[in-house]
Amino acid sequence: MVSAAEQLAKNMNFGSFAKATELKNRLWFTLGALLVYRLGTFIPIPGVNPIAFAEAFKSQSSGILGMFNMFAGGAVERLAIFALNIMPYISASIIMQLMTSVVPSMEALKKEGEAGRKQINQYTRYLTVALAAFQAYGIAVGLEGSRGQSGAVVLDPGWFFRMTTVITLVGGTMFLMWLGEQITARGVGNGTSLIIMAGIVAGLPSAIAGLFELTRQGAIGPVMLIGLLALMLATVAGIVFIERAQRRLLIQYPKRQMGNKVFQGDASHLPLKMNTSGVIPPIFASSLLLLPITAAQFAQGSGPEWLQNIVAMLGRGQPLYFAVYVALILFFAFFYTAVVFNPQETADNLRKYGGFIPGIRPGAKTAEFIDYVLTRITVVGAIYLALICVLPEVLIAYLGVPFYFGGTSLLIAVSVTMDTVAQIQSHLVAQQYEGLIKKAKLKGSSR
Predict the structure, then answer these.
(1) Helix axis angle, 407-446 to 4-11, nearest 10°
(2) Which of 132, 252, 410, 437 has the most CB atoms less than 10 A away?
(3) Which CATH superfamily is domain 21-446 in?
(4) pLDDT value at position 235?
(5) How far from each other are the two terminal CA atoms of the chain, in whole angstroms?
(6) For residue 155, is it left (φ>0), alpha (ψ between -120 and 50) or beta?
(7) Backbone angles phi, psi at 269, to 5 degrees
(8) What residues contact 318, with CB distance under 8 A and at least 6 apart?
(9) How much is the CA Rg of the chain, to the nearest whole Å?
(10) Are 192 and 180 in contact (CB under 8 A)?
């Protein structure tokens, strides 16, 4: 049997999209917001010699700073007002989610519903300002000690430069945080994820052109080029396959009697995604890797020796970098799954509406069974995330090929695109339902 929603989805075409005025407005708003973001990545902060900074950045672009620049859409390379991107907000969100699971007062605030959620969001904003100010000040101090072949990076070092840099970078981060919230509320898709994806996708044309240029110059052979492109396609195919994979638990509903009529029991499925946490673990892991060494990377050569050793060991392509990255991805895959899906709450809702899993007692036993199944598929999902994010970068690092796109960037781009397309389809389905309801009302009024 084909459900009504599936039938409507099959009937959707360009004509139904043309009639969806609200969806078109949301799409235009999303595109306009992303355009504003891209323009901001080209506005440099004041007081910096761009030529000297470009020379200083070039010597460090192959490390983790280059990964940060990829997420920021080239804003770090140009030292733009959006150089911090939205990473401080993501770091603040991680800390707040950890606190809501550990601190009893924060956990109680989370259970208060909408009012508690607004208060937690406010705390997240305050923490974002603090983290962004810390990173911005470290960058300002590091820039004052940096030099390129053309001279000093900072034209007039001092407290005035530090304060203006902190205000500019923190203001850019807070603006992006606000812009992401506006996209989520008034546009299509998750605003934070779309901003990160826009930064990644913006470098795709130049990355592909650079890859073909390396082939033309003989730096890499045609076989290597075909292998890298095949690796990209295989990674995308694997992401699409796993992101759409589900473990469906059969749910039975007993017979119901209403008056003199007896309604047959129904059956449905409880879908559990193979990767419940989505793209969040790689973003969180990247954010935490970038947080402690952002300032130290700029101040390379002038900071403490132990700090420089940490920066060197956490360089992109180093064994410690891969080990920490994998560990963080695995941790956040389980942690975020536990945050967004509560087996006990799901079991209570099933018992409330009379649903049960065949062979499993309602209540605590159902919650244990759901948690058991969810843990098993989360293990597979976490391993998939680690392989997708790390394996291409390991191959590229050991092959010595300067390639822009790794598994993390492809995962973010493909996953966010799939989520956005799914939201667009849901808007079109809602539009179809509204049209059917209006037609039904008109027929009813004409009788």
Answers:
(1) 100
(2) 132
(3) SecY subunit domain (1.10.3370.10)
(4) 82
(5) 31
(6) alpha
(7) -130, 145
(8) 312
(9) 25
(10) yes
Q: Are 25 and 185 in contact (CB under 8 A)?
A: no
Query: Above pLDDT 90, what percent of the chain?
Result: 13
* Strand locations in 185-294 (E): 246-252, 256-258, 261-263, 267-273
What global pTM score does this model have?
0.77
Distance CA 13, CA 52 (A): 53
Question: Mean pLDDT, to the nearest integer, of 244-254?
Answer: 85
Per-residue pLDDT at 21: 78
Task: Give me the pLDDT at residue 447, please.
Answer: 56
**119 vs 106: CA distance, rounded Å:** 10
Check if the beta carbon of residue 44 is closer than 8 Å to that of residue 50. Answer: yes
Question: CA geometry: angle at 34 spanning 183 and 12, to 5°?
Answer: 65
**Cβ atoms of residues 9 and 421 within 8 Å:** no
Three-class SS state of 278 = coil
413: its two tokens: 């781009």
Q: Which helix (H) or strand (E) segment is 214 a member of?
A: helix 204-217
Mean pLDDT of the chain: 79
Contacts of 392-395 spanning 24+ positions with Cβ under 8 A: 392/231, 392/235, 393/316, 393/317, 393/322, 394/322, 395/231
Q: Yes or no: say if 85 and 196 are a contact pair by the CB < 8 Å rule.
A: yes
- Give me the pLDDT at residue 438, please: 62
pLDDT at residue 3, as a whole number: 46
